[in-house]
Amino acid sequence: MNQLLTVAAAITLLTSLGFGGQLRFRGTVKRGQSFVRQINHEFAFGLDPTEWKTVRCEGWHVWIGPSRDENFADLATGPLHGSSVLEICAADFRDSDNSGSNAAGPLNVNRPGKVRDFRFVTTRAEDMSLAALAENPAAANEVLAHIRLNKGTVTITRLVLGHLQQGTPPTIERMDFLVEINIPNNAHR
To answer: Which end of the chain is less congested by CB atoms within 10 angstroms, N or C?
Structure first.
């Protein structure tokens, strides 16, 4: 009986540390702040601030992997060009001239909303295979047969926008969010 309780406790502990199952956590960031949540000893989730003057996106870039320099979501989520759900930009929530919210109408912009579904891999080898696939799309069936794409979601639960003057880029002053990540049992490999 004690061994059964010990095994059950170990499974619960491993799941809560990101070694299988769904990991859920909440966070808050203010303009210009980074956010990092360690999932296990080799893997983390993060938000890095971005600026309008450098990437034309005032907000954050979502990453998941060993470090912000090894983002295992970029290639798995895509697209390689154009707007990505991994870029949370203030302009996503405003119309094209920043005169109002991004609602239906002639100034509406086709951008991701408050729920950002993304995919990721859990090893450098899988990430390198995705990079090879980007260079050689004809190999898709062969490469994808050996890669497990995992899923995650960032849901923005509260958003405070700034610089809401027509003709200027808006900013995100504060963002509260919920992250849900499905971690495979072998994410610690």
So the answer is: N
